[in-house]
Write a structure and sequence with these properties.
- The chain contains 4 helices and 5 strands; from the N terminus they run βααββααββ.
- The chain is an alpha+beta fold and 118 residues long.
- The chain has a single domain, classed as Alpha-Beta Plaits (2-Layer Sandwich), CATH 3.30.70.
- Strands 1, 2, 3, 4 and 5 form a 5-stranded antiparallel beta sheet that branches.
- The relative contact order is 0.23.
């Protein structure tokens, strides 16, 4: 399993619309994410910056990312891309700027059980 993170801006005038869109993601996009071996995918918004994190559980990341661009996901991107502001310092060919991994993991909990002693 590999973890990936990336950043992009969201235009202030589109923040509310962007949030609403992500409450109603196309079922085909969710299915494609699953088929492309992505799990535990999250997007966070803070002060106009979107941070995404996901875990890749497949064996051919390049092939899975190519497969991600199916017709339904392309339609989704046509809605979301105009709302985003890519960072100027992103690598050539990137839309979201990758956070180069591995980075030092400061804290990670996969499962947490709290029991109360009485």
């Amino acid at each position: 399993m590999q973890r990936f993170g990336s950043l992009i801006g969201v235009k202030k005038e589109f923040e509310e619309r962007y949030i609403i869109l992500h409450k109603h993601i196309f079922p085909g996009v969710l299915d494609r994410i699953h088929k492309c071996n992505i799990s535990n995918y999250s997007i966070f918004l803070k002060d106009g910056i979107l941070f995404s994190h996901f875990e890749y559980i497949g064996s051919d990341f390049a092939a899975d990312m190519e497969a991600m661009a199916d017709e339904t996901t392309e339609e989704w991107w046509k809605l979301t891309d105009p709302m985003q502001e890519p960072p100027e310092d992103r690598k050539e060919g990137e839309w979201w700027a990758s956070i180069v991994l591995p980075v030092e993991s400061l804290f990670f909990v996969q499962k947490f059980f709290l029991t109360q002693i009485t």
